[in-house]
Design brief:
246 residues; Rossmann fold; 2 domains
């Protein structure tokens, strides 16, 4: 009978109940039914969040618990760590721009904030600048660009990582400009870059387009400077010292 009950539950797509219904103690009909429904709702919420995290497209998972704040991370005086990590910037549709040298924690923090947004039920997409540029070019060639842009309109937070690592083709730069323009005052962006704004023309290849893009991007943005040494290099050097000391 137990196997039959669980089979019925799975047929009705009640996977949470099928796994956990036997752990519920019966006190009254109302209490028992309430506990069963709570189990199923909790399971569905977990599955929904897992789907959102998968759809976001994170390259690696990074959490805020693993992130090390230090004095080399320079916040503007109107911004606090809590404002970022508690996702307060999402409601007013503000942007976060992380600028600094390679390996200083920009991508880690961007990923961790975006992951928390997913876990709290916000729709998120994560791209590197080169990846997004290639997707836009491919969709444009295939005639499916508008469909892709419409999917982005449903997203609350877009992360564009590593602007500055690869110069963009003229068409890709224009398409990326369109994406950022479409986000203006409609959703939040997190941008990471190893270049100052004055050098972005080396990426986008057009001074006027670059100026227009930066103008839209910084209007509702908080700019955070990562001025320390490479975190990965520091870790590597520490491991070498530890091995030599053994």
């Amino acid at each position: 009978m137990t196997e039959l009950i669980e089979q019925y539950m799975r047929t009705l797509k009640l996977g949470g109940l099928a796994k956990n219904w036997r752990s519920v103690q019966y006190v009254s009909t109302e209490q028992y039914l309430t506990e069963l429904l709570k189990i199923e709702l909790h399971e569905r919420e977990i599955n929904r969040i897992n789907r959102m995290v998968k759809t976001a497209g994170f390259r690696v998972m990074k959490t805020l618990d693993d992130f090390v704040w230090n004095s080399s991370i320079e916040l503007p005086h109107v911004l606090t760590q809590e404002y970022m990590t508690e996702l307060s910037f999402l409601q007013p549709k503000e942007n976060l721009i992380f600028m600094g040298a390679v390996g200083t924690g920009k991508t880690h923090l961007a990923t961790a904030i975006a992951l928390k947004a997913c876990q709290e039920g916000h729709r998120v997409r994560f791209f590197t600048a080169a990846e997004l540029a290639n997707i836009l070019l491919e969709k444009n060639t295939k005639g499916t660009l508008n469909n892709f842009l419409n999917t982005l309109k449903k997203v609350e937070l877009i992360v564009i990582d590593e602007i500055g690592f690869v110069p963009l083709h003229k068409d890709a730069a224009e398409l990326l400009f369109q994406v950022i323009s479409d986000c203006y005052e409609r959703k939040s962006l997190i941008i990471t870059s190893n270049l100052e704004f004055s050098q972005w023309n080396t990426v986008f290849g057009d001074n006027r387009l670059t100026a227009a893009l930066v103008d839209r991007l910084i209007h509702h943005s908080h700019i955070i400077i990562f001025s320390g040494e490479s975190y990965r290099l520091t870790q590597s050097m520490n491991r070498r010292r530890t091995k030599k000391g053994v």
